[in-house]
Specification:
heterodimer; A: 226 residues; alpha/beta; Rossmann fold; Arc Repressor Mutant, subunit A; five-stranded parallel beta sheet; four-stranded antiparallel beta sheet; B: 526 residues; alpha+beta; five-stranded antiparallel beta sheet; five-stranded mixed beta sheet; 11 helices; rod-shaped; disordered N terminus; disordered C terminus; WalR-like (chain A); Sig_transdc_resp-reg_receiver (chain A); DNA-binding (chain A)
Chain lengths: 226, 526
């Protein structure tokens, strides 16, 4: 992906850029809102990572509102030390697609970057069926089959599997699952997500030998065909 | 005004102006002036009323006299009239009557006046003329009357006989009375005004003393003596109420200050520890790591510690933010039941892996007005604790019911109800001393020291509950702990869900549902 990083702190900026490049993305860096806005409107990016508080008169939200007003739909991931619920809501209202608060783990940021990049490509077509290897999810009848065999899932387990499947081949962090499946925006302290994932594995993976749900160390989970 | 009533003993310049800067003096002066003015008004009214009555009485008496004399005249002419006048003069004990009759030529016929006063020309008005009686000068009220024609003159077709009658009263006695009345009223006014002024000064004193106490106490507090309190008289009057309100405010300030001090101490201690740990790990790795893997592992551990510090910071900030009450703007009406169900669903899996059962017991509808995500967080924290401190094969119970009556000190809005959320576990429980302090920031019971956690969970629950105007109660059961959240429910929320807390016959409101593990009947709401 071609990613624009607008971030004034050089340590964070270079760290993010390095990580993204390692993950195979092209990056363009700038440290202020003015240049960021110029780049965002003059070049085509797949994603913009945007700090909220920027020097040079144009802060992150202004930049975001400006490009959205020009019908620029490039996915924007806001990166900010403003961690309040209200700040998050404000950022998403201004047109942000995701919100990561500082300090952050790079794995979290990368997972969300990948998810956003994917979303831009797949969301046009409404899907009725998700298929990964021998796993089939019928979104209309809300049934799951693997190797032709029906699997009984609780509604929440179904949504968890659906979320993982929609992000096939991508790392999904625990926070993303908590937000995406449960719609919770707080830190539940204990490893509740791990427990739910392991329960899902009991049903989806264990009877079939080859696992589809993989644990990614220090990051989260990934559903992929081996 | 010898005392200009300075509240602060500084800068005694321009004392006259300073005196009027005293609010109590202004109030009492206004009171005194108002009192004096109203008493003037009142006494003037009495004066005019009395004097007017006396004058009217004299005029009535003179008119009656004149009418009676005219009748005598008609009956018997000059001789009868003269006789009557003489009789009257004899019977007149006050010696204040004045009579005179003259013929058309102006000659004296009868009466106690020697000559007709020159000024009395008309018969349609009153005259006040000076006179001298028994050597004393005085004022007389006079009226002249034309005497009608007599039997003899009638025959001549004359309506007016041409004779004139003068009737009057000497006003000396009344003047004395009037002066007396004026004097006594004036004196009374002076007395009343004096009383008013002294009353005003008294009020001023009382007022000043009260304000002075407040000012002294608050200024002592402003200078750092936070233990000072307003003295209470104990009779519950307005001053006591003010004093009580101020004391309550001071108590709250002290609590807040203690809270801030406690937090800063805790930050110093509780954050220093993980920061030290992270720093040590990094330094140790930099100095002693033998290969890249060891270095990487040490860095990862340090990052984990830093993440913990961040989490603690975020929790502290969130608690502080909740405590300011700023989040009340996000309040909305919603049904709490599915919210609790979701949370229970999230933790039920965790409980199961620990071999703990999670039981639910909730009303079918739980109308609530508040912040959904905060309530989620509060219940999540409590469930997390309950599961963390429960042994295997025990049960954690989450119940939520609506009760119509206020419990304890809670004040519910009129027509509102209390939502009681209870989390019971059969875990290690808490001692009484620990329960007292359990909701303080960073407090960790001795028995809980070895379990992971920041000691902020219950503090956050308390902040959230307080934000919703409720309270948190901790109690023991054998074995385990009961945490009860009492949350007032706004009547608007009840109304929106058609819930009447005072109707005992509400159907389907207290049906309970149990969910344990996978197969629960309520899974459709999950």
């Amino acid at each position: 992906m071609h990613i624009l990083v607008v971030e004034d702190d050089p340590t964070v900026r270079n760290f993010v850029a390095k990580g993204l490049r390692e993950a195979g993305h092209l990056t363009e860096l700038t440290d202020n809102g003015k240049d960021g806005l110029f780049l965002a409107v003059s070049e085509k990016f797949d994603l913009i990572i945007l700090d909220r508080m920027l020097p040079g008169g144009i802060d992150g939200l202004r930049l975001l509102e400006t490009i959205r007003a020009q019908n620029n739909t490039t996915p924007v991931l806001l990166l900010s030390a403003l961690a309040d619920v209200d700040d998050r809501v404000q950022g998403l209202k201004a047109g942000g697609d995701d919100y990561v608060t500082k300090p952050f783990a790079f794995s979290e940021l990368l997972a969300r970057v990948e998810a956003l990049g994917r979303r831009g490509r797949t969301e046009q077509v409404p899907q009725t069926k998700l298929v990964v290897a021998d796993l089939e999810i019928d979104l209309l009848s809300r049934t799951v089959r693997r190797a032709g065999q029906k699997i009984d899932l609780q509604p929440r387990e179904f949504r968890l599997l659906e979320y993982l499947t929609r992000h096939t081949g991508q790392v999904v962090t625990r926070t993303m699952l908590l937000e995406g499946v449960w719609d919770y925006h707080f830190d539940p302290q204990t490893n509740v997500i791990d427990v739910h994932v392991s329960r899902l594995r009991q049903k989806v993976d264990k009877p079939f030998g080859t696992p589809l749900i993989h644990t990614i160390r220090n990051a989260g989970y990934m559903l992929r065909a081996e | 005004m010898k005392d200009p009533a300075p509240l602060h003993d500084t800068a005694p310049r321009r004392p006259r102006l300073r005196a009027f800067r005293s609010a109590s003096l202004r109030f009492s002066l206004a009171y005194g002036v108002l009192f004096a003015l109203s008493s003037i008004l009142f006494m003037s009214f009495i004066w005019w009323g009395t004097i007017g009555f006396l004058e009217r009485q004299v005029e009535t008496a003179i008119n009656a006299d004149a009418r009676a004399l005219a009748e005598r005249w008609v009956m018997g002419g000059v001789p009868t009239l003269a006789l009557t006048i003489e009789d009257r003069l004899e019977q007149n004990l006050d010696d204040d009557a004045i009579y005179m009759v003259i013929d058309p030529e102006g000659n004296y016929l009868a009466g106690n006046v020697s000559s007709w006063p020159a000024k009395v020309e008309y018969t349609d008005r009153w005259y006040s003329l000076p006179d001298t009686r028994a050597g004393l000068r005085g004022l007389a009220e006079l009226h002249a009357y034309r005497l009608p024609g007599t039997a003899q003159t009638h025959t001549a077709g004359q309506l007016d006989s041409g004779y004139k009658l003068l009737v009057g009263r000497d006003m000396r006695a009344r003047s004395i009375l009037r002066r007396l009345l004026t004097d006594s009223l004036l004196w009374a006014w002076v007395m009343v005004t004096l009383l008013a002024v002294s009353g005003a000064m008294l009020v001023h004193r009382i007022f000043r003393r009260m304000v002075k106490t407040v000012a002294r106490t608050t200024s002592a507090i402003a200078h750092g003596d936070l233990n000072r309190r307003m003295p209470l008289v104990g009779n519950g009057d307005e001053m006591d109420q003010v004093a009580e309100a101020i004391n309550e405010m001071l108590d709250r300030i002290v609590r807040l200050m203690d809270g801030v001090r406690e937090v800063s101490n805790s930050i110093a201690h509780d954050l220093r520890t993980p920061i030290t740990r992270a720093r040590t790990q990094l330094e140790d790795a930099a100095l002693h790591a033998r290969d890249a893997d060891e270095l990487r592992a040490a860095i990862e551990r340090a990052v984990g510690n830093l993440d913990n510090i961040t989490a603690v910071f975020e929790a502290l900030l969130r608690i502080a933010q909740i405590e300011t009450g700023a989040r009340r703007s996000a309040f909305a009406t919603f049904d709490l039941r599915p919210v609790l169900f979701d949370i229970a669903d999230l933790y039920e899996a965790v409980a199961e892996t620990h071999g703990i059962g999670l039981e639910l017991d909730m009303d079918d509808v739980l109308p609530f007005y508040g912040d959904r995500s905060l309530i989620q967080q509060a219940v999540a924290n409590l469930l997390d604790n309950a599961i963390k401190f429960s042994p295997e094969h025990s049960t954690v119970r989450l119940s939520a019911h609506i009760a119509p009556v206020a419990t304890g000190r809670l004040v519910t809005p009129a027509g509102g109800a209390i939502l009681k959320v209870e989390i019971r576990d059969e875990g290690i429980g808490m001692s009484d001393e620990d329960m007292e302090r359990a909701t303080e920031r960073f407090f960790r019971a001795e028995k809980a020291r070895n379990t992971p956690g920041s000691g902020l969970g219950l503090a956050m629950v308390r902040a959230i509950v307080h934000l919703h105007g409720g309270e948190i109660q901790l109690s023991r059961q054998q074995p385990g702990l009961v945490v009860r959240l009492l949350l007032p429910v706004a009547s608007s929320a009840l109304a929106e869900y058609g819930y009447d807390p005072f109707d005992d016959d509400m159907p389907d409101m207290t049906r309970t549902s149990h969910f344990s593990h996978q197969h629960d009947t309520n899974s459709d709401v999950l």
